[in-house]
Amino acid sequence: MGGIVNPPGELHRLPIAVIDADRSTPLPGQRENLGAQITHTLLSSSSDKVEWRSLTPAQAQRALGSGKVYGALSIPVDFTRSVATLATTADTLPVLKVLTNPATGGLGSGLAQTIATQAATQASLTLGKQSTTSPVAAKAPSAARLLLADPVRITTQPGHPLGNRSGLGLTSFYYALLLVLLGFLIANVTHTGVDSALGYTDSEFGPWHSRRPTVPVNRTQTFLVKMGVSAGITTLTTTLLMVATVGVLGMDAAHLPLLWIYSYCATLAVSLGAGAIYAAAGGVGQLVAMLVFIVMGIPSSGATIPLEATSGFYRFLSLFEPMHHLADGVRAILYFDARGDAGLTRAWIMIAIGFGLAVLLGLAITRYYDRKGLKRLTVLPA
């Protein structure tokens, strides 16, 4: 709840682009055209809450297409000229375009749209005050003077459109959440199943209870067996997940081989990470793993609530929480043409780091327990 109760109040440098394509000559008595004036005003208004970025149309398209900005305010090429001729003709109304980025999530894109629309409205009112006091406006018809008071028409359109079956930009979050949940579930099933098969825990199914003969293996061997079982189960779950989401539900998805490989590696990394925690902490490890991978992972993922709209605590968690990086990688594959700068490269690096840490932690702690003689096998009288 702490991550969602007040997103507008927690805003911290939400990146929004301003695209100045205005190439008209400046108005009489002014050194810059209106596009440059609006851009300078917005850049100077950047604060701790909003970060305006001046980008060219090509740069803005790339930033929208990689999730670097949540939206944009676009000033067209003939903006100043259309404002200058408004007093004499209303055939061409000045237009400011608000570009949304639904691939960054509905809330983030909505916040950017609201901020950009407010900025465009304020710019229109400022231009209106300047225009209505000019000598040309005094001679203009009454209808033209009414238009001059608020001269700009504001339009909204997607800057980076998504398919109809993309969940309005939320399929990446839910898919990433499924990867984490599957990894956590596989770790639980493997931990319980292997221990039961080796005779270290009882097996219960409804009223039926059984206990297999205990196999004398050490902790390190047990951890290696669980790693192998997790790798095998992950192959099945990854395939079933893609069949269900892409094949049955029809989720918009490209780069299917890459999505399968990414899903497999991400799920296995989470599973091994949770398994290493179980090996270190025993039964309490399930609670610890749930806190690490799920409870703290969801609000710090940045997939539903932008990290720029959460408190500093969750932005700090996002530096190492798996779900944030996994969600960025899924989003890059589903929405941003699997571009590395959209978060996919960083996601692969974090998966590799998580995999390595899980194996090292699991092997280090189990070998330490074995060297200390902390055997799981307890000889009981018959």
List the keywords.
elongated, 382 residues, ABC transporter, 7 strands, DUF3533, two-stranded antiparallel sheet, abc type-2 transporter like fold
- N→C terminal distance: 52 Å
Q: How many separate domains?
A: 2
What is the string of helix and strand elements?
A: EHEHEHEHHHEHEEHHHHHH
Oligomeric state of this protein: single chain
What's the pLDDT, averaged over the residues? 89
Helix percent reads 40-55%
Structural class: alpha/beta
Largest β sheet strand count, sense and barrel closure = 5 strands, mixed
Strand order of the largest sheet: 2-1-3-4-5
Radius of gyration: 28 Å
What overall geometry do the principal axes of the alpha carbons give? elongated
- The parts where pLDDT drops under 50 for at least 5 residues are none
Count of DSSP helices?
13
- The counted number of beta strands is 7
**Residue fraction in strands:** 5-15%
Family: Belongs to the ABC-2 integral membrane protein family.
Transmembrane segments: 172-190, 229-249, 261-280, 287-307, 347-366
Protein name: ABC transporter
Keywords: Cell membrane, Membrane, Transmembrane, Transmembrane helix
